[in-house]
Amino acid sequence: MLKEIVLATRNRHKGEELSALLGDLGIQIRTLADFPAAPEVEEDGATCEANAIKKATEIAQATGLPAVADDTGLEVDALGGRPGVFAARYAGEHATYADNCRKLLQELAGVPRAKRSAKFVTVAAIALPGGEVQVVQGILEGLITEAPAGAHGFGYDPVFLVPERGKTLAEMTAAEKNCISHRAKAFVQAKEILRSLQSESIVGA
Known about the structure:
The chain has about 200 residues and is an alpha+beta fold. It contains five helices and eight strands. It has one domain: Alpha-Beta Complex (Maf protein). Helices cover about 35% and strands about 25% of the residues. Helix 1 links the parallel strand 1 and strand 2. Helix 4 packs across helix 5. It starts with a strand and ends with a helix.
């Protein structure tokens, strides 16, 4: 049966979040920290889906294990959908989370709350070593704040307000965020795919 998977990420924060989301599957969850020889996959796709598929496919082939990868974009309406797929490097190739948030807030300076709508889009891909790939998507609607708030999370969490909760993602506990986030929505679906792979493995045993 399916005993282990590898998360195609070297981002510690993301690895911890994904491990929490997938932790009840009953399979060993590994990250690229366990595979130092695994390739650095260049995220040069034009879409989040392309990046997720590329990462999952290359890591599955390199490790010989089913691989799970995701890519997230932030689409801000007042900016015509930017930063989109370039969210992680919006302020430059080696930008920090704070750099990206600062640039976003600068570009939205003077934009009223009613026009600060935005959405996170996460695409997750599950690739098998043999080449099969399945893709799912999760979306979270919200608003960009005028200033950062909260000390939890990572990325744009301090400036992304979830109106129905009245707080930013960075003001939520990890458990609360993992109930509503774009990544959580994508990985609820990803878990069902992994469960089906477990069942197929058992049937085929």
